[in-house]
Design brief:
- This is Entry exclusion protein 1.
- Keywords: Coiled coil.
- It is a single chain.
- With about 130 residues, the protein is an alpha+beta fold.
- About 45% of the residues lie in helices and about 15% in strands.
- It has five helices and four strands.
- The chain has a two-stranded antiparallel ribbon with strand order 1-2. A two-stranded antiparallel sheet has the order 3-4.
- Strand 3 and strand 4 form a beta hairpin.
- It is elongated, with a radius of gyration of 37 Å.
- The mean pLDDT is about 75.
């Protein structure tokens, strides 16, 4: 980092000691400074060229575009399927059937059990029996 930024090593050691720069430990137990930490404190290193993380489509070679075409088509189809599923979910409405209460109904041939939808009135009448 010192070479990259044109600083003396002691300057970086002092910055870490005073807490201006955060240093971590690598697998060997040595202090290391992340580049993002250096950029936060000192800015972009001089002489470095910034690269965009993703190249623009016109920069991609024709071969890469041809290789991406099936993937892009699959992505388009998946998005369409998700859109259709969301529309289907909006059309579905959950309507649970009301619980049924067994009620004895007396008929001339004897008592017969009959089921009707549960309402407050039917629940109270069932409790009275």
């Amino acid at each position: 980092m010192a070479k990259l930024y044109g600083l003396h090593r002691s300057t970086l050691h002092e910055a870490v000691t005073k807490g201006r720069i955060t240093a971590g430990l690598d697998g060997k137990g040595q202090k290391v400074i992340d580049l993002s930490e250096m950029i936060r404190v000192y800015g972009e290193p001089s002489g470095s060229t910034r690269h965009s993380p993703t190249p623009s489509p016109d920069v991609l070679p024709t071969l890469a575009k041809d290789a991406l075409h099936p993937l892009l088509e699959e992505l388009r189809l998946l998005r369409e399927e998700v859109r259709e599923l969301r529309n289907s979910l909006q059309l579905l409405e959950h309507k649970p059937a009301p619980p049924l209460v067994t009620k004895s109904v007396a008929k001339s041939s004897g008592s017969e059990k009959h089921q009707e939808p549960a309402t407050w009135a039917s629940l109270f009448s069932a409790l009275d029996e």
